[in-house]
Design goal:
The chain contains 10 helices and 12 strands. By secondary structure, it is an alpha/beta fold. It has a 6-stranded mixed beta sheet with strand order 2-1-3-5-6-4, sandwiched between helices.
């Protein structure tokens, strides 16, 4: 029950009406017995500063920040975490007595979502498809996972080169290369890799028949294939890879764990969820998405 001590949190962005964050965070609030409430506020770019000032003046606990404000929000905060300073983007704001600090939980959500599969990454060769904001978080996480080599495949070479430069200079990676997605060498890159990660929206509902890798013939049972897309639950990229014998994973657990990291930041406690609880929230979110698996 909401009372005078209840802390209010919210997701802000444009649009946010289809966001899963209120459902996810309502589950966290109940699971951890928190005196909190969570809402969704549609905020356009022109009102972003006012929204952050409202966070301060109303004494709200914090915001999750989604598209398109992850970068522009930084000009209105008082401090940033180390990861935000490196990535130039944030998805979580914490307000403490009017002092607002920005955090990025996506890299941590990705790493935690891997579970036992994280061991695969140490010394691995990884192909990353995409060079946008999500790719930044993933490549940053790959540095933490101590991968041996990263190949960034993207339609815009300039954007990929920019990410590669950041990876070498800031993210702790030592071997990074860039390739054009249209080049015939792609199958060779895939066959030489251990892990493939799609950070783009290719294959997302409703365009479920598209794949970031139309020719999956180079994928084999040695590969681990991860797709940040979580709707559909099994993208064509993942379905094709599974048929080739690869171990596959969607981005749904990353969504869950990046949200969990936000809750930890806001409340200053290292909350955990077990395997049964993870299955429970997965089912709730899949039902909301209309995924029947």
């Amino acid at each position: 029950m909401i009372n005078s001590q209840t802390k209010i949190f919210a997701v802000i962005g444009q649009p946010v009406r289809h966001s899963l964050s209120p459902i996810l965070h309502d589950w966290f609030i109940k699971k951890f017995k928190l005196n909190a409430a969570y809402a969704a506020f549609e905020v356009d770019a022109g009102n972003l500063e006012q929204a952050v000032n409202g966070l301060r003046s109303l004494g709200l606990g914090g915001f999750n920040v989604t598209i398109p404000h992850k970068e522009s929000i930084l000009q209105f905060v008082d401090d940033t975490s180390d990861s935000v300073a490196l990535l130039g983007a944030a998805n979580t704001l914490k307000n403490k007595d009017g002092f607002v600090k920005a955090f990025g939980t996506d890299p941590f959500g990705f790493v935690e979502s891997l579970g036992e599969e994280a061991a695969r990454f140490n010394g691995a060769r990884v192909v990353v498809f995409g060079a946008g904001g999500s790719a930044k978080s993933i490549v940053y996480a790959l540095g933490k996972l101590q991968v041996h080599y990263v190949c960034i495949v993207n339609r815009s070479r300039a954007r990929a080169e920019s990410l590669a430069g950041a990876a070498l200079e800031k993210y702790g990676l030592h071997q990074v290369s860039v390739f054009d997605a249209s080049k015939n060498i792609l199958n060779d890159l895939v066959s030489e890799a251990d892990i493939l990660i799609n950070t783009t929206s290719v294959g997302m509902h409703p365009l479920i028949n598209e794949s970031i890798l139309p020719d999956s013939s180079a994928i084999s049972k040695k590969h681990f294939v991860y797709d940040l897309v979580y709707n559909p639950g099994l993208t064509k990229f993942l379905a094709d890879a599974r048929l080739r014998g690869a171990k596959v994973q969607s981005g749904l657990d990353m969504l869950i764990f990046q949200g969990l990291e936000s809750v930890r930041i806001w409340h200053g406690e290292h909350f955990e969820i077990g395997k049964d609880e993870l299955k429970e929230i997965r089912k709730i979110l899949k039902t909301e998405l209309g995924i029947n698996e």
